[in-house]
TrEMBL record:
One of its GO terms (biological process) is vesicle-mediated transport. It comes from the Eukaryota. This is SNARE-interacting protein KEULE. Belongs to the STXBP/unc-18/SEC1 family. InterPro entries: Sec-1-like_dom1, Sec-1-like_dom3a, Sec1-like, Sec1-like_dom2, Sec1-like_sf. PANTHER family: VESICLE PROTEIN SORTING-ASSOCIATED.
Length: 668
């Protein structure tokens, strides 16, 4: 490894999904390469990371993976560490002044903490920081090499990443004009997005939601320009990466930059898939769930932490299924598991059809089948709890009204009737009213909204979530525009929904009618039918302004398909006929090998302000449907309660009145 290397190449990826590529780069291109050329045996080394890179690593790799590559100890750079002068150190850090100071403190001077160091920066390092390192006289002989990994994103799913800007919604939207703080947020976000393309060796056509205020009759706002500003910042970073070895010089993929204003419904509507229901209704910490299982000693129960992630074959198979479908398939799996086991059949000879719970308890009594049973028992328990909550909270009625509002089959009268007659929770009412104002934005200008919110009997803090939806004004909606780009007039006598039923995709299950708007945008992008006046392309400046024709879009996007410098991937196909206790394992074995060969370029979609689980579901669905690997990125991944709290934070809390100041609040 040279003193400074910006080569991001990595060979032999094979048919691997997005997160697998990130994992391989971290393990093999970084950790494995930090090895002395004259070393005949595997020397143990220390891995040192900062607060950000440790999270990046944990998203893609497990501790066992890191240990297998010769790492015996993982440390954080900002903490005091024990000197290990006989061991080499691998630094995976952000290129900040603070981190470089820590590095110099570790390795300079007469008594360095480690024998020698391999330094990997997560993104581009400035010339000033490189100069600071080089001017330290004692460190040069102790550095085996420095390299820009250009990997500073969080791969939270096989086809999804975040930049970990959880406060982006609060920093970029609100009731005040944002300037420096918002620009700094977008710059940091753009830097991390660009490392995705540097890591994947892809050069994209950069398309983005155009500002509505490009119309000279309207005023430009900071919020309206967010996708435009982010697209420009990403583009500037990509131009720097074009000087790297192996980085493509012509476009190889598509990037579509959006913001949360394009779909205000998806973050709050009840999504009825197994994955979304788990995170919406159960007490989970990230992907971690505490499962209560019978004690191995037979006396009582014990708590067991489990991760709902890709390594779980049952989760991988069912997570995007409707909760009713998932429940049925789990029962089928349990039934088939029992039918294949003669001892289990003996226990069930008392007659009558057994419930899923009975089957679960029976098989748990057979110790020799515990390993297979554990894969099913967890999900039977989860699905049972979810279905119980749905019944207890009357969520089907709430969900039906939500979807009727979105598709234009319900209106103000239905909302009033529901609030008067149904005993809904505050959260249900908040989410329902957030959907109502998103579908009826004109109500912000009338007294009727205040009366409806008064009828809901919400706390002032909760009312903020509803009123603050006005800051997420709807973007240009290509579904409601004519071919010449002008809005179509609404017929008040007809439905005025924000969604239209999609032909050929009738809902197979109740309450599965809703789809996030990115589904239609991605399909239009794939067909080169995305209106260029609403979604211009950064690669050609001419479509940026009004009057651009569709022929321009076709010329830009119909260029000969260039290949990524990395090996081509395809998508997994999720089998529908896996219905027993064993066959889910085959999904993990085939998830990479059954990636169908892609016939088109990758599509990257980035949403500023937080993505949703329904949008994650869509990108997996469309990857199979379009035979193109689709990767979703966002500033964060938000569940409904998280999004509601972020919308509340768009306006500051009012100062307390004199009546609200208590004696305890006074400082004497």
């Amino acid at each position: 490894m040279s003193m400074f290397d910006s080569d991001t190449s990595s060979q032999g990826n094979g048919d691997k999904h997005f997160r697998q590529i990130s994992r391989d780069r971290l393990l093999y291109e970084m950790i494995r390469s930090a090895k002395r050329p004259d070393s005949k045996s595997s020397n143990w080394k220390v891995l040192i990371m900062d607060r950000v890179t440790v999270k990046i690593m944990s998203c893609s790799c497990k501790m066992a993976d890191i240990t297998d590559e010769g790492v015996s100890l993982v440390e954080q750079i900002h903490k005091r560490r024990q000197p290990l002068p006989s061991m080499d150190a691998v630094y995976y850090i952000q290129p900040t002044k603070e981190n470089v100071d820590f590095l110099l403190a570790d390795m300079a001077g007469k008594a360095p903490l480690y024998k020698e160091a391999y330094v990997f920066f997560s993104s581009s390092v400035s010339k000033e920081l490189v100069a600071d390192i080089k001017k330290e006289p004692t460190i040069k002989s102790r550095l085996r090499g420095m390299k820009e990994m250009n990997l500073e994103y969080f791969a939270i799913d096989s086809q999804c990443f975040i930049t970990d800007h959880g406060s982006a919604l609060e920093e970029l939207y609100g009731d005040e004009e944002f300037s420096r703080k918002g620009d700094e947020c977008l710059t940091a976000m753009a830097n991390r997005i660009a490392t995705v393309f540097a890591s994947m060796l892809e050069f994209p056509f950069v398309r983005y939601r155009a500002a509505k205020s490009l119309d000279p009759t309207t005023m430009t706002t900071f919020c309206d320009l967010i996708p435009t500003k982010l697209a420009a910042a990403v583009w500037n970073n990509l131009m720097k990466y074009k000087t790297l070895n192996h980085f493509p010089q012509i476009e190889t993929c598509d990037l579509l930059i959006l913001d949360r204003s394009i779909d205000q419904i998806a973050p709050v509507i009840h999504e009825w898939t197994y994955d979304a229901m788990c995170h919406d209704l159960l007490e989970m910490e990230g992907n971690k769930y505490v499962h209560v299982v019978p004690s191995k000693t037979g006396d009582g129960y014990e708590r067991k932490e489990v991760l709902l992630e890709d390594h779980d074959p049952v989760w991988l198979e069912l997570r995007h299924s409707h909760i009713a479908d998932a429940s049925e398939r789990l029962h089928d799996k349990m039934t088939n598991f029992v039918s294949r086991n003669k001892a289990a059949q003996m226990h069930g000879r008392d007659g009558g059809e057994m419930s899923t719970r009975d089957l679960q308890k029976m098989v748990q009594a057979l110790p020799q089948y515990n390993e297979q049973m554990d894969k099913l028992s967890l999900h039977v328990d989860l699905a049972g709890k979810i279905n119980g909550i749905i019944r207890e909270m009357g969520l089907r009625d709430v969900g039906q009204l939500e979807q009727d509002l979105v598709f234009g089959d319900a209106g103000t009268k239905d909302i009033i009737k529901f609030l008067k007659e149904q005993d809904a929770t505050d959260e249900q009412k908040i989410r329902l009213l957030m959907i109502y104002v998103a579908t009826h934005p004109e109500k912000f200008e009338t007294d009727k909204l205040a009366k409806i919110i008064e009828l809901a009997d919400l706390l002032p803090e909760d009312m903020k979530a509803i009123y603050n939806m006005r800051f997420l004004e709807s973007a240009p909606d290509s579904m409601n525009t004519s071919n010449n780009g002008f809005p179509l007039k609404f017929d008040n006598k007809k439905r005025r929904g924000l969604r239209k039923d999609r032909p050929g995709e009738e809902a197979a299950w109740q309450l599965s009618r809703f789809y996030p708007i990115i589904e239609e945008l991605i399909e239009k992008l794939s067909k080169n039918e995305l209106p260029v006046n609403e979604y211009p392309c950064m690669n050609d400046p001419s479509p940026t302004f009004h009057g651009a024709s569709h022929s321009v879009s076709a010329r830009v996007l119909d260029a000969p398909a260039a290949h990524s410098m990395r090996s081509r991937r395809a998508t997994w196909a999720r089998p529908r006929n896996s219905d027993d206790g064993y066959s889910s394992d085959s999904i993990l074995r085939r998830s990479a090998s059954e990636f169908i060969k892609r016939r088109g370029k990758r599509i990257f979609v980035f949403i500023v302000g937080g993505a949703t689980r329904s949008e994650m579901r869509v990108i997996h669905k469309l990857t199979t449907k379009l035979s193109r690997e689709i990767i979703l990125g966002s500033s964060s991944l938000d569940d409904p309660t998280q999004f509601i709290e972020k919308v509340k934070a768009l306006t500051p809390d009012p100062p307390p009145t004199e009546e609200e100041i208590a004696i305890d609040d006074l400082e004497i």
